[in-house]
């Protein structure tokens, strides 16, 4: 008995458009990660890139629930002594709202070569305009999962 392994092709990849206005950050990020991985397709394979491209517009109007704006911190280390830096989500969201969604989706993808390849298929824009009209993006299907 042989196992069939799907071959990733460009014809299988679709482009989806998501309007983030009024959507909750974490729920939207998990749905986007689901589509980027290709888990919504019957031929899903965890070691292959079978996912689709996702375009997110109006990311500056996304909802961040709870007290995350005040309490959640992004931390990084510069490499120098005393170089631990941090910024709150409120500061990052005010300056670069696309980074908050990007980091949320990136945290839900695998931490390997495949994950780095998948995150490049996510395009995030503030405002309603985007330069991907030639790809004819569809609206993303509602991917409510029941576990």
Contiguous uncertain segments of 5+ residues:
none
Overall radius of gyration: 17 Å
What is the distance, rounded to the nearest whole angstrom, between the alpha carbons of the first and last residues?
Answer: 31 Å
- Number of β-strand runs: 6
In what order do the strands lie side by side in the largest sheet?
A: 5-2-1-6
Helix/strand-derived class? alpha/beta
Helical fraction: 25-40%
Name of the CATH superfamily of the domain at 14-66 and 96-139: Ribosomal protein L13
The geometry reads as globular
Mind telling me the CATH class of the domain at 14-66 and 96-139?
Alpha Beta
Strand percentage lies at 15-25%
And the CATH topology of the domain at 14-66 and 96-139? Ribosomal Protein L13p, Chain: A
CATH architecture of the domain at 14-66 and 96-139: Alpha-Beta Complex
Number of helices: 5
Task: Describe the sheet with the most strands.
Answer: 4 strands, parallel
Mean pLDDT: 94
Question: How would you concisely characterize the structure shown here?
Answer:
It is built from five helices and six strands. The chain is of the alpha/beta class.
């Amino acid at each position: 008995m042989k196992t069939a392994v799907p071959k990733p092709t460009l014809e299988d990849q679709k482009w989806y458009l998501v309007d983030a206005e009024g959507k909750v950050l974490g729920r939207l990020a998990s749905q986007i990660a689901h589509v980027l991985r290709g888990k919504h397709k019957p031929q899903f394979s965890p070691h292959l890139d079978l996912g689709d491209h996702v375009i997110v517009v109006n990311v500056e109007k996304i909802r961040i629930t709870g007290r995350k704006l005040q309490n959640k911190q992004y931390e990084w280390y510069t490499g120098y002594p005393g170089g631990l830096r941090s910024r709150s989500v409120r500061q990052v969201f005010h300056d670069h709202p696309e980074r908050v969604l990007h980091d949320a989706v990136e945290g839900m993808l695998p931490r390997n070569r495949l994950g780095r390849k998948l995150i490049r298929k996510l395009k995030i824009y503030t405002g309603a305009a985007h330069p991907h009209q030639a790809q004819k993006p569809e609206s993303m299907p509602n991917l409510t999962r029941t576990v």
